[in-house]
Design a protein that fits this description.
The protein has 204 residues and is an alpha/beta fold. The chain contains 6 helices and 7 strands; from the N terminus they run αβββαβαβαβαβα. The strands form 2 sheets. It has a 5-stranded parallel sheet, sandwiched between helices. The chain is globular, with a radius of gyration of 18 Å. 41% of the residues are buried.
């Protein structure tokens, strides 16, 4: 039975290494801020209320505007579809907010498809590639950046990430820890299934 004990211990250790390594990567990418010249800045959608972006979404949009004003890319792509009962897509709410902040309409591209990260990214990637572009900078929350970046790469894009470091998600250490754990589980789920984990109860 000694071999069985060793096998079980080995499996547990490998599992811990995989989970720990993934959590470290989530944390590491969350701290990075890549701002290379790109074809487009892609803002991942978040909740909106009758066309008004939530505080979390506004933090992402404001960061994307900053990148645009710094010359990272000449186009901001807003993403995200609509929930039942909504009159605006997340993408349109984001584009309208940016327009109100002075970003020219010609610099905005709204892709209002997808109700989760993966479908929104795939829809945006299709539009981006149809225009002959490939290099993008992904803007989302810090802990979401690794999973979003991997999904965008899997969709055929060349990706850098520049997460926002403002907004309610990054305010407290307990919130940060909870999101790191959630994103670790969500990324592992995606790696295994190639399905989005946004609507899956991960117990976190």
């Amino acid at each position: 039975m000694r071999w069985l004990t060793r096998a079980v211990v080995g499996i547990v250790l490998v599992g811990l290494l995989i989970v720990g390594g993934t959590a470290f990567r989530v944390w590491h990418v969350a701290r990075a801020d890549e701002r290379p010249a790109a074809d487009a800045i892609v803002v991942l959608g978040a909740a909106q209320y009758n066309g008004r972006p939530s505080e979390i979404f506004q933090a992402r949009l404001a960061h994307a505007q900053q990148l645009y004003e710094q010359g990272v890319a000449g186009v901001i792509v807003t993403t995200g579809g609509m929930a039942d009962g909504d009159t605006f897509t997340e993408a349109d709410a984001g584009a309208n907010w940016l327009r109100g902040q002075g970003v020219p309409a010609g610099a905005l591209l709204s892709v209002g498809e997808g109700n989760d990260t993966l479908r929104s990214i795939r829809a945006a990637a299709d539009v981006i590639k149809s225009r002959g572009w490939s290099d993008v900078v992904i803007v989302s929350d810090p802990w979401h950046s690794l999973r979003a970046g991997i999904m965008a790469e899997d969709s055929g894009l060349t990706v850098a990430t520049s997460p926002t470091h403002s907004g309610p998600i990054v305010q407290t250490r307990s919130t940060q820890a909870r999101y790191i754990l959630r994103e670790t589980a969500a990324l592992l789920y995606y790696r295994v299934s190639k399905n989005p984990a946004d609507h899956v109860n991960l117990g976190l």
